[in-house]
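Q: Entry one of two.
A:
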Amino acid sequence: MPRAEAPDVAPFSLAEFPAERDERRAAYALGITAVLITVITGAAVTLRDLRRRRGGERGV
């Protein structure tokens, strides 16, 4: 009985193309920007509400 040939293994590469790297970096930048906007907006709203509770600096 003849032996069968071993199957060829598909090439596997961990390298990425420049376009893929740019897309990944753009996604990171967009995500970080969204988080920063959320944090800054949340801090501004919190400070506004704290000032309202304390009567504000202008006596409002």
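Q: Entry two of two.
A:
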Amino acid sequence: MLWLPRANSRAMRASWRASPHRTLATARNAHKPLEARVVYRGSPYMRKTYFFLAGACFVLAGLNFGSFIQGYLSWPLFSHDPQNPPQLVRKELRITAATGTVLISSLCGWYFLYAPSRMVTRMTIYPQSNTVGVRTASASPARWLPKSVKAWPLFQRAGHLSTTDPRERILPLHAIYRLQGSAVGSEQSLWQELAKKRVKVPHGKLANITTPKQDMQDTLMLRVGGAKLAFQLSAMPQRTSVLDESPSRGIRGLCQRAMRSPTDWGGAHAPGAGAAERAEYARRQQRGFDCEPWFLDRTTFDQLFPLDVTRYKQKK
């Protein structure tokens, strides 16, 4: 665990905001024309249809169970004494218990309905405005609100919605940080896992590993603007891809296709897409179904979106 003093954390955070590395100079040097460039493409760990179905099940179950409680809640619940049989509780208590049940189940259902709007499938940098477009698996529920309500600061914490894509949010570059995880670390984690299984790892893949262990995870969590809920994106590559093996077949491949959404490759074949992006898109199309995340450059991604050092607390 890396422990940083709180005072130094604030100073480092301020230095990141003012540092030239937090601008898009890297993208400008790599691509001289100031064109938008996609730096990440991925998919949620489960199809959004399943999230919506689970949310609807929670809500319907809560309504059904709440109706049952309102009409039949008795006390004591389990009584075998014939002289003290269960009695129907007061109407006020039954209505209160039923309301609480419906409220709790609705909150659980709302989580599943809301979760896809926090799962990142594409990140695009716009050098001309020094902004980032964060595209999610589903559109924000706030898009159904009136324009006057959507303009409230409460609904602008995670950036404003794009005028061309309702699933994309536009924010300044300095407003996005990593809360946990690392693009480089997730790849290093896979190589370490393969090495433990005695799989032959290419030379140099396990050398110079400097990523902290807590950042070697399957997914990355992003702090986007002032949003209280973090955004999530998958980052670990697949074994079959890094080892140039055939994609999963049989039951395993079928389950993967049934559970996972394909990688968001929208616009990858457009004329404005980068050469590396088009080449990777063509390669994956030949391999068949694809749900593996893609980074333009993992190291550059970690530099563009540095770790939020305020997550580290001073060790007492």
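A: Comment on entry two: The first strand starts at residue 37 and ends at 41. Residues 1-21 have pLDDT under 50 and may be disordered.
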